[in-house]
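Handout, section B. The chain below has 352 residues.
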Amino acid sequence: MRRGGRLFLLLGLLIIVIGALAYFVLSQPQLANQDLAPQPTQELKRKIVIARIDIPNNTVITDTVTFLTTIDIPESEFAAASGQYFTSPEELLYKQTLRAIAFNDRIRKADITEPGLSIQIPTAQAGQPRVKAITFQVNNLSGVADQIRPGDFVDVLSSFIVKRTYLRPGFSDQGQITIKEEPFEGQTTKTLLQNVQVLQIRKPAPAPEGTPTPGGPAAAGPPQTDTNGQPVGSGGETGNQAQGNTEPQANNGNTFQPGSWLLLLAVTDQQAELLKFSLEQGTGITLVLRGRGDAAIETTTGATLDLLVSQYGLPLPQPALPAVSGPTSLTPLPTTGPAQPAGATPTPTTTR
């Protein structure tokens, strides 16, 4: 009986081991197939800008944190919009809305525009009126040789021709007291505006290619040829080579293009009045460029001829003194009459 029980136990253990081995062997292909099965890929995401709050129409976005936030959308949806979305709130800084944008609305490029020059006008200082923009035309001489940049500060100098009439008492030929009118004309120069900010600079559009520049080289054309059909120049050389100059001219950055352009200046109404009057009645206006950070207001006397003489030591030229000559120093002039007999004393002829 005990031998039969042991045999039964051994058979049971053998069955358990065989079953475990069979399970292990059969389970391996299933795990391998499970690992080789393709996993679904996740689509890439792109960030776009949406409205964090309700944004009214004609609003200039000056604070991206308050007005804007971002969300993620699928790459395919982003590509389908043909680049109409904004990907960063910084792209919308100082932009103006063209419609009312509701909370959580996606902001498209068609909803936004540039606000124009008005956003660049500085705010008013304490106790001072706010400045406005005015147009001012300059050239190389009046505009500091085209070295002014947006954001710079300038002073404005203006010159005038002053015509006045003085009344001078005098005497007539009969000895009576009379009043004579004495006209006077002189030039004066004064710094009218100081520390004026340049908002923008507008320059003329470049001329189309092939248009000759006044004072510059002619438009490019076919090269000149001789009777043999060869380019003009010794040895078939043309251009700079024909003149012995094979090196191109170096541009050292100190050259300039003649012309004029427009500056947009930030001025108060009072400054605008002075500038307009100077442009219409003065003889010329010149800008003076300030150094970075220079905001000092300088008191000036202006410049006239009498101020240069009295305060700056300008010497006045004096007329030459009249020369006194005796009769013997007069220069005789040659005569055109008949020759005088020998020994006769010629009569001197005075010069005037």
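Note. The chain is about 20% helix and 25% strand. Compare this with the example in section A.
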